[in-house]
Structures are given as C-alpha cells and as structure tokens.
Amino acid sequence: MFDDLVTMHGRLDHKVGGAFSSAANIGGGNETTIMGIIEAMLISGMVVEGDPKGDHYGPVSIGAPDDRVKKQCTRRGNRIAELTLKLFG
Predict the structure, then answer these.
(1) In this predicted model, what pLDDT tens digit does every residue of 2-35 receive, in sequence order?
(2) What is the spatial distance between Cα 6 and Cα 12, in angstroms, rounded to a whole number?
C-alpha cells in the first residue's frame, strides 16, 4: 500500500492506523519496520496511538506468531477500535 501512497494523497487524513511486523530472527528489523510504517502514516495525516503496557510501537513476531503475539495483536486491534470510537463514534 505505501508504495502507492502518493496516489492516495489526502484520503488517509484523520484515519486511525497501526502497524505490526514479523521477522525470521531477533534483530531482524521489526521495530525499524514498524517505525517506517508509522512515519508513512503520519506523513499521510493518520492518527497513530502507542501502547504503554503492550508492544509500544506495535506487535512483533519472531517466526510464527505464538500466544503472546496473538494476544498483542488482539490488544492492538481493540485499542485501534476504541480510539476510533472515541474520535469518530
């Protein structure tokens, strides 16, 4: 999607977003990837919320998602839904 972002200029303004990443190994660039996605969202005017109690930038997985990662993804989805309702509901 972000490869085509310039063609969507203005259409993502005030939309709520979030990011997650997976890699094959520790140090595989998960946080760097998430920060790059978040930067693109911010440039597009999107609203992004951190998480003080979970994976701060977004869920990350090393290899196949385990139960912890699945819980973090569910938590992130719930937080995005709650924020969307607060802002637009």
Answers:
(1) 678 778 888 999 999 999 999 999 889 999 999 9
(2) 11
Q: What's the number of domains the chain is made of?
A: 1
H-only helix segments in 1-89: 30-43, 67-88
Note the residue count of the chain. Answer: 89
- Going by the DSSP 8-state scheme, the letter that residue 24 receives in this structure is S
Can you tell me which residue has the tokens 């520790």? 26
Percentage, residues of the chain above pLDDT 70: 98
CATH number at residue 78: 3.40.50.360
Full domain range(s) for residue 34 = 2-88
